């Protein structure tokens, strides 16, 4: 059996397409947030960096925790470079911050910051969510 050049091209195209679906570690946007958490939280939060990507609202979601400033960045990257995000930072904050305040209440109270980064066309970064922000917005007791 011989493989025709067109078949090789098709195989190569599929391989490149499939490899493009995996979320790669991106360099997060700069921030002026400086926080610190106890060593046990740092160790626990570092495990987020090893979590596999998951699907989320038309993209892939990964976590990047930076222990130097105790900042957890939730990275949501588009699956296709031709797609773009069609909503804004305030909408995301209004929808996701209450859940994040509840889900991450203890690490936020310990000094961690959390932000969402929608990477890709039309992308943006939310403000850094802190325990104080959660209290101000009435999302925690």
UniProtKB/TrEMBL annotation:
Keywords attached to this entry: Signal
Signal peptide region: 1-22
Organism superkingdom: Bacteria
Protein name: Lipoprotein
Classification lineage: Bacteria, Pseudomonadati, Pseudomonadota, Gammaproteobacteria, Vibrionales
């Amino acid at each position: 059996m011989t493989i025709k050049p067109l078949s090789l091209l098709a195989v190569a195209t599929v391989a490149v397409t499939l490899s493009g679906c995996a979320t790669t570690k991106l360099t997060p946007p700069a921030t002026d947030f400086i926080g610190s958490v106890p060593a046990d939280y740092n160790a626990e939060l570092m495990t987020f960096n090893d979590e596999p990507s998951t699907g989320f609202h038309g993209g892939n979601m990964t976590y990047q925790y930076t222990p130097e400033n105790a900042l957890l960045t939730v990275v949501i990257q588009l699956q296709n470079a031709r797609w773009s995000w069609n909503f804004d930072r305030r909408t995301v904050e209004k929808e996701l911050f209450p859940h994040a305040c509840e889900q991450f209440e203890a690490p936020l109270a310990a000094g961690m910051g959390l932000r969402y980064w929608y990477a890709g066309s039309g992308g943006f970064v939310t403000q850094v969510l802190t325990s104080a922000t959660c209290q101000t917005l009435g999302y925690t007791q």
